[in-house]
Each structure stands twice: as structure tokens, then as C-alpha cells.
Amino acid sequence: MQQKLKGARFRWINEAMYTETGAHTFKMVQADPSIFEEYHQGFAAQVQKWPVNPVDIFIGQLQGRSRAVVADLGCGEAALSAAVGAQHTVHSFDLVAHNERITACNIADVPLPDESVDVAIFSLALMGTDFIKFVREASRILRTGGELKIAEVVSRIADVSAFVTALEGQGFRLDHKDSRNKMFIMLDLTKISARPATFRAVPGLLKPCIYKRR
């Protein structure tokens, strides 16, 4: 019974994070940080069922490159920083500072200067209804020529071409798409220009990831 209750609580938190704005979710978890802890306990249980964790792929990519400044946007427990923080300068951001590596914030507004980052990563982190603001923030902090790396659940993307077009509209160029994994799609993009001053959100680009009730 207790496991069922925990599962129901995780599904509620997960749904709230996917169907609200980043600002709303940040306010919610700052008012009750235990929400974030409960979410990540449930998320960790889901990860154990996956054939591969996208974070591990990003870690492998960073281990094989020269020193860089990295922004891990929606970092969870900052596993990426723990793995490659000695090799790279890693800034880890999420809704709650789960440990000393993490800065708590809405990832649409991170405390980094313009064009100060070489690599920005979203590993299953485009969760808010206003996720394009997260992408715009990545554009702001990335230097021209910097890399944007995204891992997203395949089932969330109804039209990959439309999703990529929206990303490119924020000053990026798609360099590589890896859709071999049946669960996740991996996108590598390069910042080629500044984000536009204004933007129009396109509804339906990413569907919320809602777990089935049992």
C-alpha cells in the first residue's frame, strides 16, 4: 500500500512539473522542498528500468573532450558534475539545491553572464509548458559556436522537424540527431546567432510525460 501511495504521489508531482510553467514549479518546490525529493526518489526508480541513462551518455562525451565550461540545466542530483567536475567547470542548476554542487533557480533565469558557457545540456529537463524560455536562456549564456545538447523522451515529440525548427529559431543549428534509442532522442546543436528579441510559443511541440495510473 505504501509503495502505491508513493507511486501516486510521484505521478502527481511529475504531472504538475510537466503541465505548469517553470516559474510556477520553482515557487511550488521552494515552498515545499520535500516535493523535489519525492520526485527524484520516484525518478530514480524509473531510471533503474531504462537500458541507458542519457546523463551517462553526456558524461562519456565530456570525458572525451578538452576542458570546457558546462551548464547542466535541470541537473537533478548533479551526477554530471560529480563525474566530470574535476575535468570541466560545471554549473549545475535545478529547482532545489539537493547538494552543494547545485544552484537552485528557475532554469529560464540562471545566474550566469551572457556568452559565458561552452556547452549547455538539457537531459530530460524541458519539463515546463514554457520550455522554450529554457532554450532561450541556454542561448543567452552560450558563446557563439557553443554547443547545446538535448536528450528528450521520444514519445513527447509529435513532430521532430517542428521541434528542431523551434530550436533553430532561437539561434541554433542542428548538427546531429541520434534516434537509435527507442526511448530517447539525442540532439546536438550549435549556437550560430543570438536569440531573437521576441518569440512566439508554438503549442504542442512537446507533450507532457504522464505516467499511467495503475
Structure description:
- By secondary structure, the chain is an alpha/beta fold.
- Helices cover 36% and strands 22% of the residues.
- It has helices spanning 2-19, 22-31, 34-47, 54-63, 79-84, 131-141, 160-168; strands at 69-73, 89-94, 102-104, 117-123, 142-153, 172-178, 184-191.
- The chain has a seven-stranded mixed sheet, with helices on both faces.
- α6 links the parallel β4 and β5.
- It is globular, with a radius of gyration of 16 Å.
- The model has no long low-confidence stretch (mean pLDDT 90).
In a nutshell, what does this entry contain?
By secondary structure, the protein is of the alpha/beta class. It contains seven helices and seven strands, in the order ααααβαβββαβαββ.
